[in-house]
Amino acid sequence: MYALAKAKEEMAEYLSKIIEVDKEKILNSIEYPKSEIADLSLPLPSVSKKRDIEVKYSGYLIKEMTKDKIFINVRLNELNLMKEIFSNFNENYGIIKVEKPLRIVVEHTSANPIHPLHVGHLRNAIIGDTLVRLLKARGHEVNSRFYVNDGGRQVALLIYGLSKLDYPEPPEGQKKDEWLGQIYAITNVIIEIRKITEELKSASEQEYKEKISKRDELIAVASELESRNQDYFNRILNGVNSDKDPEAEISKIIQLYESGDSKTKQIVRKYVNYALEGFKESLENLHISYDNFDYESDLLWNGDVGKILDLALESVARISYKGTVALDLQKFLDDKVREELKIPKGFEIPPLVLMRSDGTSLYTIRDIAYTLYKFSQFNADEVINVIAEQQSVSQMQLRASLYLLGYPEIAKRLIHYSYGMVTVQGLRMSGRLGRYISFDNIYDKVSEVVKTKIQEKKGVLENIKEIANAAIRYAIISVSSNKPVSFNIARVANFEENSGPYLQYSYARAYNILNKSTDKLDIQKIDESDLKNEKRQLLIMIAKFPEVFMSSADYLQPENLTMFLRFLADTFNSWYDKERVIQEPDEKKRITRLYIVKGVETVLRNGLNALGINSLTRM
């Protein structure tokens, strides 16, 4: 048991007898007040109606316990707390393993293989990878998966565009996903312009104005795309114009691929894998990798999707809906089930459409098959889907459908980890129009800023990649997932405060203090009188670290650990700028301060590592 947990136990043990309340209830109600008031506090109304109690206690880890109106406040014994922490201190301090490990699948990123990863995927990938790292550090068995959406219209549209170029190979020296993204955008915008032009023939006066405006916008995009590659643009334009019905050709590609046509399979997989090569190259810069890449098409070919579709068609919830068939998800779920499935009370769930009018399956049915696949392949206790908040309704449909189709436990153990969108200085993105801020572009720009700042500080350039990784990761995970992220490249690479590089700098500072010291640390040489102000605050924070780590992992809240490390670094730097450590002539004070530095160094290293940020000894 870590030191702070022992202090809480001591507090709860005493109070449970005084208040005559179960100890666990007290433990669950202990709070952290402002440090100038106390170190621990218990609001009496949270555990009992008793008010007129007398509290007077001091013990091993508790220096003083007093009552202040409705609060029981505790001041900790600094000397004993420090001895408790450092008597059995080791390099893994604070990384507490869970008693009963779970088998957990985390599916994240899962971008369509049609263009480069962009800044929106950046948040998904970093959140997903951070959850994987946190859960592994906590002791769970974790499996990370990337779902390759190779069976829908978007991939078929890309293949259609490639067919007009006679299925070329990527040019030497050009990143493969960037090349494919260019072809996809050209094909899409040409088809969109053609579609609107056709619609203008029968449009009303009001519709005509709106469609003309939209077409003008698309023509401007087309002009931009043509300037990038005139040969590709003209060949695709001529190819699309030579087809009577491009949409029918795209549908034919979807049908051939879903049915397992060997030639179509070979072509689609070839170009999808080119996109994945580009993805992996981008993700490696941030040390992000996956245990499995799962192809949507495999679920079609092995019959998994067909089985789910048959099951859904036989369901009592089947209804006719907008010219096709669907599942009625509203009628068959009572309030208790909705609560278990985390569906808001009163929210009307739209019907789940099962197939297109041409008989091909939709992504929602495939998602049901894929969910069952993830659970079975890893024998998972939980599956976490890291998906943007815009997909909240479809994720509710997914859980509701699983429940209605006879998989209630899987539906309850499927977690949607929702996150808000990312903006970069107010710019709008559209992959289908070829307008996006790519993952690589962000990384390169941050790396450039990092390099400039290191040169200004006359630091070492060998760690640019690790500092850029820290800058980008911190900018994403320091913000609660339900809030939007506004990405400012200059700010994320700040070495002075509130950034990943700042935490790395703080760690390097602590590491080098210890590295230069010649003192042998001896717990018996602590000077209790020196444990005050920032040093006392740092001691309490070091004591809190195991709890912050466990809570961040258990509640999937990496932002809490990130902010804790930031406040630890702030307090450490504020103290170190005012007091000497190695140069302190008094041996006991020097040893006391070195212990504090050792605690800060270990907590920063272990905390950063759990978040996927490497601690650096030189910057």
TrEMBL record:
Q: Which SUPFAM superfamilies match?
A: Anticodon-binding domain of a subclass of class I aminoacyl-tRNA synthetases (SSF47323), Nucleotidylyl transferase (SSF52374)
The residue numbers the entry assigns to motif 'HIGH' region are 111-121
Its GO biological process annotations read: arginyl-tRNA aminoacylation
Q: Where in the cell is it found?
A: Cytoplasm
Q: What Gene Ontology molecular-function terms does this entry list?
A: arginine-tRNA ligase activity; ATP binding
Family named by the database record: Belongs to the class-I aminoacyl-tRNA synthetase family.
Instruction: Name the major location.
Output: cytoplasm
Q: Know the name of this protein? A: Arginine--tRNA ligase
Indicate the segments forming the DALR anticodon binding domain, all copies: 503-619
Under Enzyme Commission nomenclature, its number is 6.1.1.19
Q: Which organism is it from?
A: Acidianus manzaensis
Q: Which HAMAP family match?
A: Arg_tRNA_synth
What SMART domains does UniProt report for this protein, alphabetically? DALR_1
Q: Check the record and name the InterPro entries matching this protein.
A: Arg-tRNA-ligase (IPR001278), Arg-tRNA-synth_N_sf (IPR036695), ArgRS_core (IPR035684), DALR_anticod-bd (IPR008909), Rossmann-like_a/b/a_fold (IPR014729), tRNAsynth_Ia_anticodon-bd (IPR009080)
Annotated Gene Ontology cellular component terms = cytoplasm
